What we know:
- This protein has 14 helices and 19 strands.
- It is an alpha/beta fold.
- It has four domains: 8-116, Rossmann fold, CATH 3.40.50; 148-215, Arc Repressor Mutant, subunit A, CATH 1.10.10; 225-281, no CATH class; 288-326 and 350-504, no CATH class.
- The strands form four sheets. Strands 14, 15, 16, 17, 18 and 19 form a six-stranded antiparallel β-sheet that branches. A five-stranded parallel β-sheet has the order 2-3-1-4-5, with helices on both faces. Strands 10-9-13-12-11 form a five-stranded mixed β-sheet.
- Helix 11 (377-391) crosses helix 14 (480-504).
- The protein is globular and about 75 Å long.
Amino acid sequence: MMQHGLRCIAFCKTRKLCELVLCYTREILQETAPHLVDTICAYRAGYTAEDRRRIEHDFFNGSICGIAATNALELGIDVGHIDATLHLGFPGSIASLWQQAGRSGRRGNASLAIYVAFEGPLDQYFMKFPQKLFRGPIECCHVDARNRQVLEQHLAAAAFEHPLNLSDDEKYFGSGLESIIMALKNKGILSTDISRSATARIWSYIGLEKMPSSAISIRAIETERYKVIDIQKNELLEEIEESKAFFQVYEGANYMNQGKTYLVKELDVANRIAWCQRADLKYYTKTRDYTDVQVTGANFAYPARTTSLQLPRTTAQAQSCRVTTTWFGFRKIWKKSNQVFDTVELSLPNYTYETQAVWIQVPQTIKTAVETLNYSFRGGLHAAGHALLNVVPMYIVCNSSDLASECVNPYDSRNVPERILLYDPHPGGTGISAQVQHIFSELLTAALELLASCCCSGDTGCPNCVQNISCQEYNEVLHKDAAIMIIKGVIEEEESYFKSISELS
């Protein structure tokens, strides 16, 4: 597109893909159109505000002709005249796809949008049924306004503008307002006149920030971040959310910024600083890790539940959970061939956070049936979780980073819980799991159809059914046939359970 003089945006699903696309494009332009090499850049969350403003300005005035961007550039910013958009993989919703495509042709000019499908099941589904994409309805976007981490930040900003009152403001902020106000009081952010009654108290902002809203990121829910600094220039390159830091910056990691490669020389965990040095690396790195999910609610299989038609007819539970990630190494992978050529041991502190999960118990009889056929039950649970992840975006507006499943580490021989579990991989949770709970039965049916209709052979399935591009375990320990047995067995158990409840009532 750039070689033909078109100003374009290539929308990428992840930050790393954004950097790789920029890197590969520059390599091609260096050979075919070297005068264009400096007219392309990347735009994503994590960059400093100054860098983002500079890129926006340069793109608007025409000194930059191409941008590899995440959905950070999807809306809200006027970047001037755009001729074309590239969409690398389905962004997670039809609404997002149209929003991205709408960045071009803004001033009545002709425009072009090209959707490049990846191997994932949703992308391939739209390749087989394009009318579902081009004629499908725009999804309704649901936001979890009760997310406690968001509410705490929101209330601090609200109290700064106008003092809060429980009796008046609960209708706006929800029934948990009082507990959040008390949490902010204990943090020294809100204060009140204790001589008044509880309902009549006025809560005022007394925090240290002159304007609390300026300290809140609209791109991430977290407040703790790691700084990435260029050793030679002593220059801040970006800030990475704490939950993502150990996946991107660790000693020996290939860190990428604006298509340039850096070698991480030192990670100062105490001060949250990663020291990097420019290096011409022909490979990229990816961590080796495993994640444990501990549901902190009651762990029971088929709880008694009223048969009201207003409640979801599923035994799936949406509960709080504790997620702990352990890193034990990383791989070096050639950029050109994606072949792993080296593995390195790694020692990092575990990272733990509270979030939300949705899960359903797999009865012991199903496990016994799977193992009787010498199928891998662990592989079946792993594959079943992937299958559910792959169909969720057909029902809920989300992308691949909004949900995760329990993924089995091939070197971990511990017993895995007998359940299919999805969770919000962000501290505090995003509310997606709670939405999934209500449609869990539909997701099970859709996942079974996905697996049964895929013609691939072999236990490990393929990217069209149980393999998932976001799997941290490189899609190891997967068993497609075991997943089919597990999902089918859970569906039958659900139907039997609710049939018996109906007969009793």
